[in-house]
What does this fold into?
Amino acid sequence: MERLQKVIADAGITSRRKAEELILAGKVCVNGEVVKTLGVKVSGSDLIEVNGALIERDTAKKYYLLNKPRGVISSVSDDKKRPTVVDYIDTDARIYPVGRLDYDTTGLILLTNDGELANLLMHPTNKIPKTYIAKIEGILNKDDIDRLKNGIMIDGRKTVIQDFKIRDKDFEKKTSLVEVTIVEGRNHIIKKLFDAIHHPVIRLSRIKIAFLSIDKMKSGEYRELTIKEVKKLYSLR
Ligand code: URA
It folds into this structure.
């Protein structure tokens, strides 16, 4: 038996705290009965509705780390029938990506059916660091680097870089390879950062999320997380 709010969070509907609010607001039914108090426990066979819709439950939690290739969409399905990250994983579990990488971005993406962990990793207050390698146009000068390090306003909010390194400079081709760590999860954030200093991103890859790294995994390769890794991710909250 598990607490109702945990089951709702695990189904990826919302966070555990918001699930509690939904319960208190009378928006949750168990086997057709409205439940308005916290502390109710449910079993795998109980039918749970949130806002009138039955939630689907996977009982076994699955966690995968994929090295996403270019030209793959970070969602469970695509209207245009493009390949999705889920297509790469051989599982019957109803997994989905934790956050997104752009169609043309490669690298580390997590997939799970554990809504609670997905919420934890995406919630801005948990400040989960993500590291990217970007090939950008041009050679950065001191002014560009200072701007990046001081934080850049993107869509009205300041984006702070946790760590920044120049890995390589190609003076002939006028490109640079940089490593950037940020705790933000806003869409296209790295591309927007470098657009803001007029050094657009040519190629982008995510190499790390917290302590997890892509290591020597080939493009399209995936592996399951270990229990130890899952526990360590939970401890980041
Ligand atoms: N920032 C981007 O611009 N694109 C990504 O895919 C991820 C972070």
Q: What stands out?
A: Helices lie at 4-10, 16-24, 115-122, 142-150, 189-196, 227-234. The chain has a mean pLDDT of 94. Residues 101-102, 105, 188-191, 204 surround uracil (CB under 6 Å).
